[in-house]
Amino acid sequence: MKLSFSTVGCPRWQWSDIVSAATDLGYAGIEVRGVGDDLFLPDARVFSADSLPKTRAELERRGLTVPCLASDVHLHDPAQDVKAVLGRYTALAKGLNTRGIRVLGDYWGKPGEGIDTDLVAARLKELAPLAEDAGVELWVESNGVYADTAKLKALIEYAASPAVGVVWDINHPVRFFGESVAQTVSNIGKYIRHTHIKDSDMADGVLTYKMLGYGSLPVEEALSALASLGYTGFLSMEWIKRWNDELEDAGVVFSHFAFQMRRYLSRLA
C-alpha cells in the first residue's frame, strides 16, 4: 500500500509547493482536488494544454503519480451535464496517466436529503462504457447516502462494469451509519480501488476531525482489512481544510500523517 494526500488539505498551496511537499515527505502520490483557486481541475493553469506535458514530466522525475482525480462529476445533480464534465476529466486523466476519477452520488460526507438514487444509478451505468472506452475508471465515494455501503454495493453492481469501483472513505460509514469495518468490507471490499484515510470523533451528534491517531476511528482495523484483501492501492490523506479553515495546517498534518501511517503499516508487516 502506498501513501498519497489530497490537495483538499492544502487549498492555499501552489502546485510547486504541493509536489515539493510530496517529495520531501516521501509520499508516492498526489490525489488532486483543486490547485490553489482552481477547483475545476480541467481549467487549472498547471493542467492547461501548454503546461500539462511539463507537469507530467515533473511528476515522473520525482517518482510521483496522480492516482485519483477527485472530480466535479455529480451524479445526483439533475442540472449537470455529466457526460460533458466527465469528458473534460477523462482527457485530463489520460494526460496525467491517472487511473481513477472520483465521482459523487451525494455532495457532502453527511447524507443529504432528496437524493434521487434511481437517477444516480442510471447515470453511472450510462457513463461506465465511456470510461471503459477511454481506459479510465469511475470510483464512487462512500459518502452521503452511499456511506450506507449496502446501497453503495447495489449501485456498483447495477453499473456492472469493470470500469466502476469504490473510493472507501473510512470515516463516513462508521460515523453516519454505525457500520463496523467488517460490515463495510463485506459489502464493498472487492470493489475498493482507492482509500481516504482520516480520523475523527463524534460527540452529541457533532463530528470533529482529528489528526491521525488522535480520534477514535478504527484506522488500524481498516488497514488490516485492506491487507487481508490484498489491496495494493493508495491510502490517501483527506484533510478537508478547504471547507474547514479551523483545521490544522497541511504543513503539520501531512508530515504527521506520513509518520503515523508508516508506524501503522509496519505493524502489518
Give the key terms.
single chain, 269 residues, alpha/beta, TIM Barrel, 8-stranded parallel beta sheet, two-stranded antiparallel sheet, 9 helices, 10 strands, 19% strand, globular
Structure characterization notes:
It is built from nine helices and ten strands. It is of the alpha/beta class.
Could you write a compact summary of the structure shown?
This protein is an alpha/beta fold and 269 residues long.
The fraction of residues assigned to DSSP E strands is 15-25%
Give the SSE string.
Answer: EHEHEHEHEHEHHEEEHEH
Terminus-to-terminus distance: 11 Å
Mean pLDDT: 95
Level of helix content?
40-55%
Query: In this structure, how is the largest beta sheet organized?
Result: 8 strands, parallel
Q: Could you tell me the number of beta strands?
A: 10
Q: Any idea what the CATH superfamily is called?
A: Divalent-metal-dependent TIM barrel enzymes
Q: Choose one word for the global shape.
A: globular
What Rg do the Cα atoms give? 17 Å
- Unreliable spans are none
CATH topology: TIM Barrel
Summed up, the domain count is 1
Q: Assign the CATH architecture.
A: Alpha-Beta Barrel
Per DSSP, the total helix count is: 9
